[in-house]
Amino acid sequence: MNIINPFVVISLFSFTLFFGFGLYPVSSFAQNHPTPAKPKYQYPQEIVNAYISSCRQRSIEEGLTEQQAKTVCQCTINQFQSQYSFEQFIKIYTQAQKTKESPDEFVDVGIECATNLLK
């Protein structure tokens, strides 16, 4: 069981939602949590790779371990691909870029995945 400071989780939400979840320009899930076989929607691999790379870097900067960052970032991209078509994801991303706010869709996914770290 990994225990992380609640402050780190809050920081992760605020920072990762902005940078890791797509508001920052886009430049195996944990051992205890199996990944879904195949998400409903498949995003271009280069987008997935860029998202995971950016998300992991920012999550580590916010105080998560390498494994925790890997878990959260893989979880979030899996959730996005399971819930939103690529077109929907880009629309949410574009709107977030304009408003500079984390959309509810990103927040919901972030909370779900960060909660998995606390289990």
Rounded Rg:
13 Å
Note the overall shape: globular
What share of residues are in beta strands?
under 5%
Distance between the amino and carboxyl termini? 7 Å
The largest β sheet comes out as: none
The helix fraction, in percent, is 55-70%
Mean pLDDT over the full residue set? 75
β-strand number? 0
> Helices and strands, in N-to-C order?
HHHHH
Structural class: mainly alpha
The low-pLDDT segments are 1-36
The DSSP helix count reads 5
How many domains?
A: 1
Protein described:
The chain is an all-alpha fold and 119 residues long. The protein has one domain (6-118). 69% of the residues lie in helices and 0% in strands. It contains five helices and no strands. It has helices at 6-23, 45-61, 66-83, 86-99, 104-118. Helix 1 packs antiparallel against helix 2 (45-61) and helix 1 packs across helix 5.
Concise account of the structure shown:
This protein is an all-alpha fold. The protein has helices spanning about 5-25, 45-60, 65-85, 85-100, 105-119.
Structural descriptors:
mainly alpha
Question: What is the topology?
Answer:
Blueprint: H1 6-23, H2 45-61, H3 66-83, H4 86-99, H5 104-118
